[in-house]
Amino acid sequence: MTIRYVTAPADMGAFHMWWLQNDPEGRSAVHNHVFRVCTLFALFCGLLAWLTPSESFLMLAAALIGIGATMLLTPAGIRKKFSAQAVRMYSSSTNATLFGQRTLEINDEGILSISANATALYKWESFAAITATDTHAFLTVGTMMALVISRDTVAEGNLDAFVAEAKRLHKRAVERVPVPAMAL
Question: From CA 6, how far away is CA 147, in angstroms rounded?
Protein backbone atom coordinates (compact mmCIF):
# COMPACT_ATOMS: atom_id res chain seq x y z
CA MET A 1 0.00 0.00 0.00
CA THR A 2 1.36 3.42 -0.96
CA ILE A 3 0.55 7.01 -0.11
CA ARG A 4 2.06 10.12 -1.68
CA TYR A 5 1.85 13.50 0.03
CA VAL A 6 3.66 16.79 0.60
CA THR A 7 5.14 17.58 3.98
CA ALA A 8 5.90 21.08 5.32
CA PRO A 9 7.19 22.73 8.52
CA ALA A 10 3.60 23.38 9.65
CA ASP A 11 3.13 19.62 9.90
CA MET A 12 5.88 19.46 12.53
CA GLY A 13 4.06 22.18 14.47
CA ALA A 14 0.90 20.07 14.32
CA PHE A 15 2.87 17.06 15.57
CA HIS A 16 4.29 19.03 18.51
CA MET A 17 0.82 20.29 19.40
CA TRP A 18 -0.57 16.74 19.26
CA TRP A 19 2.38 15.37 21.26
CA LEU A 20 1.97 17.95 24.05
CA GLN A 21 -1.77 17.18 24.30
CA ASN A 22 -1.83 13.41 23.89
CA ASP A 23 1.49 11.77 24.67
CA PRO A 24 2.12 11.03 28.37
CA GLU A 25 5.63 12.55 28.14
CA GLY A 26 4.24 15.64 26.40
CA ARG A 27 1.50 16.13 28.98
CA SER A 28 4.06 15.66 31.73
CA ALA A 29 6.29 18.34 30.19
CA VAL A 30 3.36 20.78 30.13
CA HIS A 31 2.36 19.94 33.72
CA ASN A 32 5.94 20.41 34.94
CA HIS A 33 6.14 23.81 33.26
CA VAL A 34 2.81 24.90 34.78
CA PHE A 35 4.00 23.71 38.21
CA ARG A 36 7.18 25.78 37.89
CA VAL A 37 5.22 28.89 36.85
CA CYS A 38 2.77 28.45 39.77
CA THR A 39 5.64 27.92 42.21
CA LEU A 40 7.41 31.08 41.08
CA PHE A 41 4.15 33.04 41.31
CA ALA A 42 3.48 31.72 44.82
CA LEU A 43 7.04 32.54 45.92
CA PHE A 44 6.72 36.06 44.52
CA CYS A 45 3.42 36.63 46.34
CA GLY A 46 4.89 35.14 49.54
CA LEU A 47 7.85 37.50 49.32
CA LEU A 48 5.53 40.47 48.81
CA ALA A 49 3.37 39.36 51.75
CA TRP A 50 6.48 39.07 53.93
CA LEU A 51 7.69 42.51 52.86
CA THR A 52 4.27 44.12 53.41
CA PRO A 53 2.58 42.28 56.32
CA SER A 54 -0.39 44.65 56.33
CA GLU A 55 -1.20 43.52 52.77
CA SER A 56 -0.64 39.79 53.33
CA PHE A 57 -4.34 38.91 52.93
CA LEU A 58 -4.37 40.64 49.54
CA MET A 59 -1.18 38.80 48.54
CA LEU A 60 -2.77 35.47 49.50
CA ALA A 61 -5.86 36.28 47.45
CA ALA A 62 -3.69 37.38 44.50
CA ALA A 63 -1.63 34.19 44.78
CA LEU A 64 -4.70 31.95 44.75
CA ILE A 65 -6.29 33.79 41.81
CA GLY A 66 -2.98 33.87 39.93
CA ILE A 67 -2.28 30.20 40.47
CA GLY A 68 -5.80 29.27 39.39
CA ALA A 69 -5.55 31.38 36.24
CA THR A 70 -2.11 29.95 35.49
CA MET A 71 -3.37 26.38 35.84
CA LEU A 72 -6.26 27.09 33.47
CA LEU A 73 -4.59 29.27 30.85
CA THR A 74 -0.93 28.27 30.73
CA PRO A 75 -1.19 24.74 29.22
CA ALA A 76 -2.81 26.01 26.00
CA GLY A 77 -0.28 28.81 25.78
CA ILE A 78 2.62 26.42 26.25
CA ARG A 79 1.36 24.08 23.53
CA LYS A 80 0.84 27.00 21.15
CA LYS A 81 4.28 28.47 21.89
CA PHE A 82 6.15 25.17 21.45
CA SER A 83 4.23 24.40 18.26
CA ALA A 84 5.11 27.82 16.83
CA GLN A 85 8.76 27.33 17.84
CA ALA A 86 8.84 23.99 16.01
CA VAL A 87 7.44 25.60 12.85
CA ARG A 88 10.03 28.41 13.04
CA MET A 89 12.86 25.95 13.62
CA TYR A 90 11.85 23.67 10.76
CA SER A 91 11.20 26.65 8.45
CA SER A 92 14.92 27.46 8.42
CA SER A 93 16.46 27.16 4.97
CA THR A 94 18.91 24.58 6.36
CA ASN A 95 15.94 22.22 6.91
CA ALA A 96 14.44 22.63 3.42
CA THR A 97 15.58 19.17 2.34
CA LEU A 98 13.40 17.59 5.04
CA PHE A 99 10.20 18.71 3.35
CA GLY A 100 8.42 18.34 0.04
CA GLN A 101 6.88 15.41 -1.76
CA ARG A 102 7.21 12.08 0.01
CA THR A 103 6.02 8.57 -0.74
CA LEU A 104 5.40 6.03 1.98
CA GLU A 105 5.16 2.35 1.09
CA ILE A 106 3.94 -0.28 3.52
CA ASN A 107 5.65 -3.66 3.35
CA ASP A 108 6.09 -6.62 5.69
CA GLU A 109 9.25 -5.13 7.26
CA GLY A 110 7.88 -1.65 7.93
CA ILE A 111 7.30 1.63 6.13
CA LEU A 112 9.64 2.75 3.37
CA SER A 113 9.88 6.55 3.18
CA ILE A 114 11.08 7.94 -0.15
CA SER A 115 11.73 11.60 -0.90
CA ALA A 116 13.98 13.51 -3.31
CA ASN A 117 16.69 13.65 -0.65
CA ALA A 118 16.44 10.45 1.35
CA THR A 119 15.14 6.92 1.53
CA ALA A 120 14.61 5.20 4.86
CA LEU A 121 12.99 2.03 6.13
CA TYR A 122 11.21 2.37 9.47
CA LYS A 123 10.77 -1.13 10.87
CA TRP A 124 7.44 -1.89 12.53
CA GLU A 125 9.09 -2.37 15.91
CA SER A 126 10.43 1.21 15.85
CA PHE A 127 6.99 2.81 15.87
CA ALA A 128 5.74 3.95 19.28
CA ALA A 129 2.27 4.91 18.04
CA ILE A 130 0.25 5.23 14.86
CA THR A 131 -2.54 7.76 15.22
CA ALA A 132 -4.91 9.67 12.94
CA THR A 133 -6.75 12.88 13.74
CA ASP A 134 -9.17 14.98 11.71
CA THR A 135 -6.25 16.83 10.11
CA HIS A 136 -3.16 14.59 10.28
CA ALA A 137 -1.77 11.11 10.73
CA PHE A 138 1.20 10.71 13.08
CA LEU A 139 3.41 7.65 12.74
CA THR A 140 5.51 8.21 15.85
CA VAL A 141 9.03 6.83 16.11
CA GLY A 142 10.32 7.17 19.67
CA THR A 143 8.94 10.08 21.64
CA MET A 144 9.76 13.15 19.54
CA MET A 145 9.95 12.03 15.91
CA ALA A 146 7.18 11.14 13.54
CA LEU A 147 6.23 10.72 9.95
CA VAL A 148 3.53 13.38 9.73
CA ILE A 149 0.92 13.22 6.99
CA SER A 150 -1.46 16.13 6.50
CA ARG A 151 -4.83 15.05 5.11
CA ASP A 152 -4.89 18.21 2.97
CA THR A 153 -1.73 17.28 1.06
CA VAL A 154 -2.40 13.62 0.21
CA ALA A 155 -2.01 13.42 -3.57
CA GLU A 156 -2.31 9.66 -3.97
CA GLY A 157 -3.72 6.93 -1.77
CA ASN A 158 -6.31 6.65 0.97
CA LEU A 159 -4.96 7.95 4.29
CA ASP A 160 -7.49 6.13 6.48
CA ALA A 161 -6.83 2.80 4.76
CA PHE A 162 -3.08 3.42 4.99
CA VAL A 163 -3.27 4.13 8.73
CA ALA A 164 -5.50 1.08 9.33
CA GLU A 165 -3.06 -1.20 7.48
CA ALA A 166 -0.07 0.34 9.29
CA LYS A 167 -1.76 -0.23 12.66
CA ARG A 168 -2.55 -3.84 11.74
CA LEU A 169 1.00 -4.66 10.63
CA HIS A 170 2.54 -2.77 13.56
CA LYS A 171 0.40 -4.71 16.04
CA ARG A 172 1.30 -8.01 14.37
CA ALA A 173 5.04 -7.19 14.45
CA VAL A 174 5.00 -6.02 18.06
CA GLU A 175 3.14 -9.14 19.19
CA ARG A 176 5.82 -11.33 17.54
CA VAL A 177 8.76 -9.57 19.20
CA PRO A 178 9.79 -11.44 22.34
CA VAL A 179 10.08 -9.31 25.44
CA PRO A 180 13.60 -9.68 26.90
CA ALA A 181 13.79 -11.23 30.36
CA MET A 182 14.84 -8.97 33.19
CA ALA A 183 18.34 -9.72 34.44
CA LEU A 184 18.52 -10.20 38.18
Answer: 11
Sign of CA dihedral 66, 68, 70, 73: negative
Q: In what order do the strands lie in the sheet with 145-150?
A: 127-132, 136-141, 145-150
H/E element holding 113?
strand 110-115
Where in the chain is CATH 2.30.29? 2-9+96-176
Query: 2-9+96-176 adopts what CATH topology?
Result: PH-domain like (2.30.29)
Question: What is the full per-residue pLDDT of the chain (184 aa) written as tens digits?
Answer: 999 999 999 999 999 898 888 888 888 888 888 888 888 877 887 787 778 877 777 777 777 787 777 777 778 888 888 889 989 988 888 888 888 899 999 999 999 999 988 999 999 999 999 999 999 999 999 877 899 999 999 999 999 999 999 999 999 988 876 656 665 5
- Percent composition of the chain: helix, strand, coil (DSSP 3-state, to 5): 60, 25, 15
- 155 within 8 A of 9, measured Cβ to Cβ: no
Q: What are the backbone dihedrals phi and psi of residue 52, each rounded to the nearest 5 degrees, phi first?
A: -130, 80
Q: What is the pTM of this model?
A: 0.75
